[in-house]
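Its record is retained below.
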Amino acid sequence: MAVKTELVKEFLIDRVFGEVEERHPGKLPDRVEAALARAPDAVLPPDARSPEADTAAVQLARRGYLTRVVETELFERARQLHQLGDTDGPVEGDWVEAAVRVGAKLARMEPAGKPDPRHDGWTSWRVPGPGGHIRHYLALMSAFTLFSDGEDSPPSFPDRIAEDDLKRGWMYGFYLRCFEESDADDPAA
């Protein structure tokens, strides 16, 4: 089925993005706040670290987390049970440590560009909801908005930080929320 990009942007991406921006920053559960604060360590390469880059990683992670919250509210399909895939064994012990480990691993696996739905490794396509392309665009929109002075101005990213590092920060927050959802779905949790 052919999809018109302008319609997807206007009715899906802009709607989700607007909902996220209305909720940002918002108060989240303490354990989520603790895991979000670890975004710089989880996704930024050592040479990209700076106070500005670290702050950006946390803000983008928060937006990624909130995006998944909005997805589950707007789309029935997004509320279906899901598995995050191979996370290096069972998740045990401290919730924050486990969430950081899983979120960081999955965020680093995502491609810098649009994920191909035919590639088995892109978890952003396996999580029920609007799909990996929509999430890719939302991550970029979040980064561009954070670092531009207006809709028509190009973003000015912090020194030494790449666009894909920023996307990984957003994906990290997204996967923290997915981890939290899968934890809530586990009767033993």
Notes: The chain has one domain: 5-185. Residues 51-74 form the longest helix (24 residues). Residues 185-189 have pLDDT under 50 and may be disordered.
